[in-house]
Design goal:
The complex is a heterotrimer of chains A (589), B (235) and C (320). Chain A is 56% helix and 11% strand. Chain A is of the alpha/beta class. In chain A, helix 3 crosses helix 9. Chain A is elongated and about 95 Å long. Chain B has a 6-stranded mixed β-sheet with strand order 6-7-8-3-9-10, with helices on both faces. A 4-stranded antiparallel β-sheet of chain B has the order 2-1-4-5, with helices on one face. In chain B, helix 3 packs parallel to helix 7. The mean pLDDT of chain B is 88. With 320 residues, chain C is mostly helical. Helices cover 71% and strands 4% of the residues of chain C. Chain C is built from 12 helices and 2 strands, in the order αααααββααααααα. A two-stranded antiparallel sheet of chain C has the order 1-2. The chains are: A alpha/beta (589), B alpha/beta (235), C mainly alpha (320). Chains A and C meet through helix 5, helix 11 and helix 13 of A and helix 5, helix 10 and helix 12 of C.
């Protein structure tokens, strides 16, 4: 089931029930120390949710969420100390600061991948730590406001803090839920599983990541600001320190990443454990908290990498796998290329002198061709001829060293893949790039977001694309359960869902048996008869003869020949490139 | 010598090989052909142990290969020349060959093998102190084959040795492979998409499509087969 | 003339200090760089191995009475080497029982998601070790006390008695040892058979497996060796720098910065990167307040990562 189509009733009831129960406990408990602990559990749960909204859904692991937490804490503290502004206003201002910090940190850092991203995120809070020390804020206390304590969020009855923290947590959970159940969450999930495919399907990955880190930054700053109010003292090490970032990550991973309840459960288990051990043994065994968190995360990674919550959930409800039996598909009779359509002659895509080299290898050299509206153009060539590189140039994955590409009269070069997709160019991949841990429908839905601004209509568009690709019956199966040909159809549907004017198909027939090829050819031919313009790459010519109106033959990155199928197949240069001299020697001409 | 029975492999939930059975006799030249993505490379990876099979048996000289960790298999005399060359790019040509000679037989016969490799591919001798990453595609392919030979293999597995090479170079590589097979009596298992050459050189061939074997036979039988002609030879 | 001499003396003094400190940073960077270069694993716990190296050196030095037996010059060096051996085995154990379960040939080829489990695992180890250190070693700052840390050799005076440079003896000894170990490692990696298999496993683990190279074993050696080298560097730092169990965090960013600066994956680059960080740190004292020294390193580090992630010394090895 797609998250987009789930009801809100159950999760809202669960959150309400949890909040009521927690509040009841919070009101009953008299001991101030336990009240503090109840409050801290909630603070770290918010911190976990903040981390989860960004890292959990997007897969970009942040080791630096202390930046936002610390900025929130210091904003609230300094506003109160210097300007006498109450935390009631300070916390919202802190959230704005956290949001801005999200953009300032995210924008440059999102260009980085993998290790570099992790290391850079680690450096931000530590740099802030030293800067705040240097600024002279080693230890800042929040002044007591005895004349109007409630106006400054200072309460003699500490149960008030539990209530406020609970309100903040519920808000954070609702935001998380909203993210999870909208195209926001699905887009993040898509880019987590395959960023290139998400871009090619029209997802503006940078924009989504920025939005996610802004929301995340605001949530963490709220947690930090409130933390300062509760503890009444702020030091750079406690708010910007490594342990702060680590705790956010650890409660989430422990409870269950990319779930709304995971961070809450992780926090409910780990924070009291660490606090109690610290209180009981802290004087004899200093640092026991760090040991607890460290061990918790080591054990989770080794024993239950998906977290505690999914483990428990699996145990309780052994999910019944949806019947994965392949559904027979009616194979329409393949219309041959000749009998179906007349290209209008209007040029939609013009490629002029395109070149790209990798190191010494000239992958694409001086390639020019045109694609006319309504035609099927086949680009063929042996492995390593530069076909996929050509597609990567066309859809914006890589930039050319020289040359020009225009689509419907407008230049495409320099546009990001998602922009090019929005202009109306969809593509599939030779090495298939499904989002394996999503349903088939969700995979296609990611493509449909470009065409439909409304989530419900996007679902309808995705279903329609699936049936055009001949895969409607498998909509609710997991993408990882599909066969090769079904995966090809799913990628086709994902590209179709964006309502492209031009479709780039990269070796869609690769690795298929002859019956499967017939099935796909029929589908593609049907699309062509509807008037869709198609460019298809293949490395074998046989199937293509039944599909393409025209061929462009590539060899070693350059155009070797072009023309109608029968002309090209008789070209001696083409025969040599394909079959080798040896074959020519004993081939019957 | 090499016997594969009922091999099934899945990649991330995707069936890559279904019930594949193949046998390669000592001293033979066996080719496996088929379209891109048919599972040929996966088959090789399963033999070498970097991809675990779901079911099936692989034996080499009667020994159960699946019981051995991947790195031990080379020591039995299996040399895998992988698709796409897979150079040790920062190592020099000579160091690449040394790495090929890690198995004991390779170490014992190092000097002789090196001479043989340099005779087969003189260009490698000229570039012996150059990092492998700076070689051209064809030279890298030669080095990949040479690296395979450096272990004094009994079974040489070649995955798409012609990939990305100009036809002239590919022909050259094929000639060398035939030479190695004839002169040294090395058993060869070849995966190729240049169906004509591959079937032309081998004793016995298999056709793999969508992870299943659809056809097998002696090379003259396969070359004469209507389906092969139509699907692969463009006739 | 006099003003000029003062400035010149300051600059020269800072440069030599940067060179001495930088060489030790370079050695710890080489340890981290070796691990990353071969395994593509960022070890968050590298700072903790440095810290353990310091304590191991301290206990070897005091426990075996090395200062008396071998003197102030040789004693700490032997202590640091003993620490290296101890931490080599600690590294082997950590790889065998923890890292190997989430790394290895399956993960090494992929950039991205597959790496996070090991990153998070080493983060957990780092938390456990640092805090366990607090439990076992206490929070009192310690040093490996020899007379060398407070004495210096004077070079000069020159330019008419105006300028002279002081070389702290402890740092100078550490400098010599660092360079010697780095050179030895360089030759080991470059010339020996094991060194070559490590490089082969780093370059292309899949192909290495086809050659019969046990990639897990190569990783094990690289990880343990990387831990040992950083521990030796820690032992050398311990002779002039007071330390406590959280000291790892002070140095871990220096190591990351050096390794990134040198181009991740390059061991030679890591050496030059570390050296550069030492120079930057010392030079920053000319213009920045002392508290911002570390912040300066972070800023340099962030700038490098953002502007030139392949590193200043990184050569772009051709990609497939």
């Amino acid at each position: 089931m797609s998250g987009l189509r789930q009801g809100w009733g159950k999760p809202l009831a669960a959150i309400a029930a949890f909040a009521a129960a927690y509040l009841a406990v919070g009101l009953i408990v008299q001991n101030q120390y336990y009240q503090l602990m109840l409050t801290l559990v909630l603070v770290w749960a918010i911190m976990g949710l903040s981390w989860n909204v960004f890292s959990g859904y997007s897969g970009l692991i942040s080791f630096g969420h202390a930046s936002f937490f610390g900025l929130g804490a210091y904003t609230v503290t300094l506003l109160l100390v210097k300007l006498d502004i109450t935390p009631w206003i300070g916390i919202p201002i802190g959230m704005v600061v956290g949001m801005i910090a999200g953009v300032v940190i995210g924008y440059p850092t999102f260009r980085l991948r993998g290790h570099y991203f992790a290391l850079a995120m680690l450096a931000y809070p530590l740099a802030l730590l030293y800067i705040f020390e240097w600024l002279g804020y080693q230890e800042v206390s929040l002044p007591m406001k005895r004349e109007a304590p409630a106006a400054f969020m200072q309460f003699a009855d500490h149960r008030a803090y539990v209530a406020i923290a609970l309100a903040l947590l519920v808000a954070a959970m609702l935001v998380s839920l909203k993210v999870e159940r909208s195209r926001f969450g699905l887009s993040l999930n898509a880019l987590k599983q395959n960023e290139a495919a998400a871009e090619a399907a029209g997802i503006d990955t940078l924009a989504w990541k920025l939005k996610a880190i802004m929301i995340s930054g605001a949530m963490a700053a709220a947690a930090g600001g409130f933390y300062a109010v509760v503890l009444l003292i702020v030091t750079p090490v406690t708010v910007f320190g490594m342990l702060t970032s680590a705790q956010a990550l650890i409660v989430t991973l422990f409870g269950g990443v990319a779930t709304v309840w995971g961070p809450v459960i992780g926090s409910l288990i780990l924070i009291p454990l660490a606090e109690i051990l610290h209180a009981e043994l802290g004087h004899r065994i200093p640092g026991i908290q760090g040991v607890v968190f460290g061990l918790a995360i080591v054990l989770v990674i080794l024993l239950a990498p998906e977290g505690v919550l999914p483990r428990i959930r699996d145990r309780f409800a052994r999910r019944i796998a949806p019947g994965a039996a392949p559904v027979p598909v009616d194979v329409p009779v393949a219309a041959s290329a000749a009998e179906r359509r007349v290209p209008t002659g209007e040029v939609v895509l013009r490629v002029l002198n395109l070149s790209r080299a990798f190191g010494g290898l000239r992958a694409v050299q001086d390639v020019s061709f045109e694609v006319r509206k309504g035609e099927v153009l086949g680009i063929i060539g042996p492995n390593g001829a530069g076909k996929t590189t050509l597609f990567n140039l066309l859809n914006g994955f890589i930039r050319p060293d020289a040359g020009e590409v225009t689509f419907e009269g407008e230049r495409l070069l320099g546009l990001k893949p998602n922009r090019i997709c929005r202009r109306g160019i969809g593509r599939t991949f030779q090495i298939m790039r499904p989002f394996p841990r999503m349903t088939v429908l969700d995979n296609v839905l990611v493509g449909a977001f470009v065409a439909e601004a409304d989530d419900d209509r996007a679902v309808a568009a995705a279903r329609q694309a699936l049936s055009r690709a001949g895969l409607a019956a498998r909509a609710d199966s997991a993408a990882s359960s599909l066969t090769t040909v079904e995966l090809r159809e799913m990628e086709l549907a994902r590209a179709l869902a964006s309502r492209p004017k031009l479709l780039l198909l990269d070796e869609t027939l690769a690795g298929l048996g002859s019956q499967e090829i017939d099935r796909l050819l029929a589908t593609i031919n049907a699309l062509a008869s509807e008037g869709l313009t198609i460019v298809i790459i293949e490395h074998t010519m046989q199937a293509m003869v039944r599909l393409a109106d025209r061929f462009v033959v590539l060899d070693h990155g350059a155009v070797l020949a072009r023309g109608k199928p029968d002309e090209v197949t008789r070209d001696p240069k083409v025969i040599e490139a394909y079959l080798g001299r040896k074959w020519m020697a004993h081939a019957p001409h | 010598m090499l016997r594969i029975e009922g091999l099934n492999v899945a990649y991330g939930g995707l069936k890559a090989l279904v019930d594949v059975s193949i046998s390669v006799g000592e001293g033979k030249f066996v080719a496996i052909v088929g379209p891109n993505g048919a599972g040929k490379t996966t088959l090789f990876k399963a033999i070498s142990g970097v991809v675990p099979p779901l079911a099936g048996r692989i034996t080499f000289d009667g020994k159960d290969l699946l019981a051995l960790p991947a790195a031990r298999r080379a020591h039995l005399g299996i040399a895998h020349v992988p698709e796409g060359r897979q150079m040790f790019k920062t190592l020099t040509v000579l160091e690449n060959l040394e790495m090929g000679a890690v198995p004991q037989r390779g170490q014992a016969e190092w000097a002789r093998n090196l001479e043989q490799i340099f005779t087969l591919f003189p260009v490698l001798s000229e570039r012996r102190n150059q990092p492998a990453g700076t070689l051209s595609g064809g030279e890298q392919q030669m080095l990949a084959i040479g690296r395979g030979l450096a272990s004094s293999p009994r079974l040489l597995m070649l995955d798409e040795p012609s990939m990305g090479l100009a036809p002239v170079l590919a022909d050259q590589i094929f000639n060398r492979i035939e030479e190695i097979h004839r002169q040294a009596g090395v058993t060869v298992l070849l995966v190729e998409q240049r169906v004509a050459e591959a079937l032309g050189s081998c004793d016995y061939g298999y056709v793999l499509e969508s992870g299943r074997l659809v056809l097998e036979g002696r090379h003259e039988t396969l070359l004469a087969d209507e389906r092969v002609k139509r699907a692969y030879l463009g006739m | 003339m006099n003003d000029f001499a003062v400035v010149l003396e300051n600059v020269l003094q800072v440069l030599t200090a940067g060179l001495l400190v930088g060489s030790i940073y370079a050695l710890m960077c080489v340890g981290l760089g070796l691990i990353f270069g071969v395994m593509r694993v960022i070890n968050f716990a590298q700072g903790e191995f440095l810290m353990l190296g310091m304590y191991a050196t301290l206990y070897a030095f005091t426990g075996l009475n090395l200062g008396v037996m071998l003197g102030s010059y040789i004693g700490p060096i032997v202590g640091a080497l003993i620490a290296g051996v101890v931490l080599y085995f600690a590294g082997l154990l950590m790889h065998r029982y923890l890292l190997m379960r989430v790394t290895g040939i399956r993960v090494v080829g992929s950039e991205g998601e597959g790496h996070y489990p090991q990153l998070i695992l080493t983060l957990g180890v780092s938390l456990v070790v640092a805090n366990a250190g607090l439990i076992f070693f206490g929070s009192m700052p310690q040093t490996v006390r020899t007379p060398l840390s407070t004495t210096a050799w004077e070079i000069g005076p020159f330019i008419g008695d105006h300028v002279s440079i002081f070389l702290n003896k402890a740092r100078s000894v550490a400098f010599l040892v660092s360079v010697a170990i780095a050179v030895a490692l360089y030759r080991f990696i470059g010339r020996t058979r094991i060194g070559k298999t490590l490089r082969a496993a780093a370059d292309n683990p899949e192909a290495a497996t086809y050659m019969g190279i046990d990639v897990d074993r190569a990783h094990s050696i690289a990880f343990a060796l990387g831990c040992a080298i950083t521990a030796v560097a820690g032992g050398l730092v311990a002779t002039y720098y007071p330390f406590q169990p959280y000291v790892g965090l002070d140095f871990v960013i220096i190591m990351y910065a050096g390794v990134v600066l040198g181009g991740m994956g390059s061991i030679v680059g890591a050496f030059w990167g570390g050296l550069t960080i030492g120079l930057v740190q010392q030079l920053s004292t000319l213009v920045l307040p002392v508290q911002l020294q570390n912040a300066a390193i972070f800023v340099v580090f962030l700038l490098i990562v953002l502007i030139r992630p392949e590193g200043l010394f990184g050569r772009n090895v051709e990609r497939t």
